[in-house]
Every structure is written in structure tokens, then in C-alpha cells.
Amino acid sequence: MLAAAAGVAVSALAAGLLTGVPAPIISVGNAAVDLAPPALKDFAVEQFGTLDKPILLGGIIVVIAVVAAAAGLIGLRHPRAALALTGLLGGLAVLAAATDRTSLTAAPVTVVPAVLALVTSLVALASMLSRLSRREAAESAPWLEAHPGDDVGADFDRRKFIEAVLATGAVTAAAGIATRFLGGTAAVASRGAVRIPMPADRAGAVPAGAQLRVPGITPYLTNNDDFYRIDTALTPPDVPTDGWTLRIHGMVDREIELDFTALLQRRLVERRVTLTCVSIEVGGDLAGNATWIGVPLSELLAEAGVQDGADALLSTSADGFTAGTPISAVTDGRDAMIAIAMNGEPLPIIHGFPARMVVPGLYGYVSATKWLTEIEVTRFADFTAYWTDRDWAEQAPIKTFSRIDVPGSFAQLKAGSNAVAGVAWAQERGIDRVEVRVDGGDWQPARLGAADGLATWRQWVVEWDAEPGSHELEVRATDATGEVQPSERVPPRPDGATGWQSVSVTVT
Questions:
Q1: CATH number of the domain that 287 lies in?
Q2: End-to-end CA distance of the chain, in Å?
Q3: Domain that holds residue 116
């Protein structure tokens, strides 16, 4: 097991030294993500939410530990079999690294960390097994110890074995410590040097009354640290601004390629937009509202000149993720943009630095490509994107959604006046009404927070005169077109969940 740990640590150190090269354990995880059946991915997101990636990596570490422990036990009697098992495990890591879509560096550099992991593990294991085998030889032939100066004495072997273990442990510890200090990747350093210019078109102040004063309600604006993260990358790609470009091509009259400096020099706008993941369940929290600064996507497309017949944008991430977005959704007047800042600072790395797409009114899997490098103007008939390859819908406008933030499920309340409050959104349509009912009774209208355009959620609150007993609270919203949120519960696949959220509480 120590030999495997040394290999993992050395490979992580090597990956830290090579810009754009994932550690082998990440490559193995990416392979698992890409090869997993869609139903298994849905289960992971549903059960673990934003913890799905740490749990996957933890599972990989457990598998490595189990295989390494098995190799160690087998090696006590069959050293060659142990080395073969270790080689097989390392070989799979090399294969995963060679085929990792998230690597920003071509072979053979991309497999260097995995090869180092394989070599380190084999050398460390062979060294320790050699010491053990010599000790066993001495114990099975004690007469060999009778000769002064003989190298196979039990005490000598024990000392050499301990030295081998300590040396392996030292390599592991040193690599682990160095890896921690390498946490300042190229992207981190690059982000620290970015200064976002003042946008030409500011969003203005948040309207008075948009943030209701209700304890426990979701804040109107979501802090960067609290903003949900759902993507296919086990670790964010290391994408510094130096060398980054955005290419717009395909069915256009003029291909455009911009580096980060050129992007900053474009006309920038600032807008508040709520983003939503299609995996959000009824009552779920995979949504957030932020202030974004970026370049209007419609202006870039106008400059490129979209040709007749094109109806889609195929956006590509630095990690190989792709998404298909209707051109109509970015040219109909909504504030679609190439975002470079979030809540007043350069995009956090986990949220897409140096640039990402933001398109109001569409679920993220068809619009919110992070670590953006390429946009192809094309036709839906000519491609399938990452999630549409996995049985999700080709197009996915956000559905009307309402959520109860307070009280929480199974809350214990005191009789009398209690606030029932939460958020609701129906992007590009707007929220006209939110209603709450108790125990299947009449619907009671909620007081809405001030509207801040069609691209953001609205807070709401109902003052409920609660009576003792067990109660069920339900919420529904109506958009500005008069369409009421459907009551039937439908799972997220293939184009977003629907249904009224209900919360059970006890009043004493």
C-alpha cells in the first residue's frame, strides 16, 4: 500500500509541475465519468449533489488501497504476481491519462505523471519485497547466519527492509508536501493578475425590496463561495490567460479569434442572471443568482456574420465538454454573454475562468459552458453534444420553479404567526404570482420581492397563522404569461423537473 501511495504522490507532484496535465487519479475519474451509464450519473447527482465528485475520487482511492493491499499480501508468497497486479493497475492509469479529454497537453507529456506513478510503485514494491524475501530466506536457512559478514542475516534484512519502507515513506511525504505548495497553478496566478475594466453598461443597483427580510430565506445574490457547481470536470482545467483564445467559426462569414486581452477590450456589460442546473429536483438548490460582466454574445455573432441555415452554437470547454445552444436564444434580446467576471471579481476558477457562457433562460447543460475555448456556428442536425449524447434533451428552456426555504422539512414551529418564504423563477417570462396552501386548502397569495428583470429569481413570503398539529405546506408559481407551474412531479431527465414542492411541519 505504501508503494501505491508513493506512486500517487509522485504523479500528483509531476502533474502539478506540468501545466494542463491532470493527475492520473483525476484521469481515472474522468474515464469513470465518461464511461458510466447515464442512469448511474443521474443517481450520483440525485443522491450526492455537489459531493458527487469528492465521493467518486474517494472511491477510486479506496479501490487503489484495496488493490495495493492485495498486492502486498500476494507478494509475501508470489512477488512476481504482486508486481504484475501493480503493473496492471498502473497501466490502466496510463491508458486513462492517454485518453483523458480534459488534458490540455498532447501526448507523450500528458502520460508522464501516470508513467512516473507506475515506475515509482513498481520500484518501491520490488525493493520492499526483495528485503522481505531475503529475510525469509535467512529464517528458513538459519545456518547462513553462522558466517560472520554474511549479507543474509535476519537482523540485516530487517534493517534494510525498514530503510526501504522509510525511504518510500519519505518520497511519499515529500511529494505530497510539494504538491500542496504547487496549489498555486498557472490559472490561479493568472487570475490574480486580471483587472476587470469598468463595464460600459452597468446593471444598476439591486431594486429596493428585492431582498426580503426573512431569516433563513435564500439571499437574493449568491456569494461565489456558495454558488452551486455542477460540471463534468473532477478538477477544474488549469487555463491561464496567457495562451488562451476564444475561436468563433463554422457557418460564419468571418472567423473570429480573440485572446483574453482582446476580450477585455470589447464592450462589456454587467447583468444579474440566475443560473439553474437541469439536475435540480423539486425543492432543490442547484441554482444561484449572480452579477456577471461579459461581452454580449449577440455582438460577436453579428461581427462574425451568421450564415443562413445556422440554428445552433456548439460551445467547447478546455476540458472537452460540449453544449448546444439555440442561436435564437442569444439573438432575441436577452443578455447572453461571454462572461469574464462574477460578483465583481474575475471568474472563480471552478466557475469557468478565464471565460464562460451565460445565457438566461436555458438550463446550464445547453448554455453555460465553462472554461470556454471555442464556439462553432452550426446546425443542431449536424452534431450531438456531451449531454445529448447521454439521452438529455437537445433544447431545454428553464421551467417555472418555486421553492420553500423556510420553514425546513419537519421543522418544529410555535403556534401563531410564522413566515413561509422562498424563491421562484421563470426566466425570460417573469414571475407574476406565488401561492401557498396548507393541508390542501385554499391557495394564499404570497408577497413578492421587487422584480429585477426577467433573468433573475424573485423572493416571496406568506405570513401563516399556524395552528397546533401536523401540517403540509405546498407552493406553486405562475409566470407572467399566466401559465401555472404544473403539479405533476416529473424527474429532471430529459429536460428539467416539474412539480409543487411540499414541506411537512409540526406546530405546538
A1: 3.90.420.10
A2: 56
A3: 2-183
